[in-house]
């Protein structure tokens, strides 16, 4: 890949209000991502920086003051400790994190505040932060989501050339789970004709369970404007036989038909149950607050 250009920037805000999702607040330490996933919906956001979708992995932005801004926002009287989702538009453990440690700093702020939330990543660098993640799990019910769409290394090298191998991600799940951290697998997006066959789904869910994952979530590929054009070009180069079928599937809208989505979700649900995963968030263990441990004196 082309070497990236890294821009250090100052964040004016840390938390982003989110609508239409299961979470209300997101936090993204970086803009752009070196993992270079061809299907990433966040590519479209580079347009706000007057950059093309193809620059998502080559023009990277580091929010150097993000932890300080986050700390101030959590101290505001109107903040009520709602869950914060880290990594909705970038990977917080992409290679840049090894140098800048912005994600680590933000986790430490959340730990100090005992604020619940989750982090989603493909990055195995998350192992570095097992200590603070363990505290967050214990005192704030924090969780980790490991993104993994296939166990086929050769396939993933074409689809997400900058991301860690599937084996290393599974090993990371094992390390986190062994430390008592709740880890789910994000088997999303599912790509028609590439990762949606029953054998692939079965092998992935089984491997996730064997390595200690507590759940598996799934969803079909979305191709919004800006992302669709980039993805179609990448597919044409790597899989010349697929573009006609993708053009047909995504001709009218950025999502697949409801029948396809329900079929995939049903298959994964059955595999999850077979692997002994409950998929029942309401049964998740409740955090033990530090202040509950304090003895009156």
Distance between the termini: 60 Å
CATH architecture: Alpha-Beta Horseshoe
Uncertain runs: 280-286, 290-297
What does the main sheet amount to? 7 strands, mixed
User: How many H/I helical runs?
Assistant: 11
Shape: globular
Number of separate strands: 10
* Widest β-sheet, arrangement of strands: 2-3-6-7-8-9-10
Strand content: 15-25%
Overall description:
The radius of gyration is 19 Å and the shape is globular. It is of the alpha/beta class and 297 residues long. A hairpin with a 7-residue loop joins β2 (16-17) and β3 (25-27). Helices cover 37% and strands 15% of the residues. The strands form 2 sheets. The chain has a 7-stranded mixed sheet with strand order 2-3-6-7-8-9-10. The chain has one domain (5-275): pyruvate-formate lyase- activating enzyme, CATH 3.80.30.30.
Give the helix/strand layout.
Elements lengths: L4 E5 L6 E2 L7 E3 L2 E2 L27 E5 L2 H9 L9 E3 L9 H5 L1 H12 L3 E5 L8 H11 L2 E5 L5 H7 L6 H13 L3 E9 L7 H13 L4 E6 L6 H12 L4 H7 L8 H17 L15 H4 L4
Parallel strand pairs: 1-5, 3-6, 6-7, 7-8, 8-9, 9-10
Antiparallel strand pairs: 2-3, 4-5
Features of the shown structure:
pyruvate-formate lyase- activating enzyme, seven-stranded mixed sheet, 297 residues, disordered C terminus, three-stranded mixed sheet, alpha/beta
In short:
The protein contains 11 helices and 10 strands. The chain has 297 residues and is an alpha/beta fold.
């Amino acid at each position: 890949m082309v070497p990236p250009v890294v821009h250090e920037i100052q964040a004016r805000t840390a938390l982003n209000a989110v609508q239409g999702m299961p979470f209300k607040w997101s936090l993204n330490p970086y803009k752009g991502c070196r993992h270079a996933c061809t299907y990433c919906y966040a590519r479209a956001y580079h347009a706000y920086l007057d950059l093309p979708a193809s620059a998502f992995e080559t023009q990277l932005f580091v929010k150097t003051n993000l932890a300080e801004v986050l700390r101030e926002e959590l101290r505001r009287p109107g903040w009520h400790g709602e869950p914060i989702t880290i990594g909705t538009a970038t990977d917080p453990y992409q290679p840049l994190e090894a140098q800048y440690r912005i994600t680590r700093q933000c986790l430490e702020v959340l730990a100090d505040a005992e604020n619940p939330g989750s982090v989603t990543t493909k990055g195995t660098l998350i192992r570095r932060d097992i200590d603070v993640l363990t505290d967050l799990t214990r005192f704030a019910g924090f969780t980790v989501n490991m993104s993994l769409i296939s166990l086929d290394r050769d396939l993933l090298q074409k689809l997400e050339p900058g991301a860690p191998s599937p084996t290393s991600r599974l090993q990371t799940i094992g390390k986190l789970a062994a430390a008592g951290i709740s880890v789910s697998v994000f088997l999303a997006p599912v790509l028609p004709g590439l990762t949606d066959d029953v054998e692939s789904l079965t092998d992935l869910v089984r491997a996730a369970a064997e390595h200690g994952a507590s759940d598996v979530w799934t969803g079909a590929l979305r191709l919004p404007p800006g992302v669709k054009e980039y993805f179609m070009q990448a597919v044409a180069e790597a899989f010349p036989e697929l573009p006609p079928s993708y053009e047909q599937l995504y001709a009218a809208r950025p999502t697949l038909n409801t029948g396809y989505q329900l079929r995939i979700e049903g298959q994964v649900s059955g595999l999850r149950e077979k692997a002994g995963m409950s998929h029942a968030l309401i049964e998740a263990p409740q955090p033990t607050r530090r202040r509950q441990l304090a003895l009156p004196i």
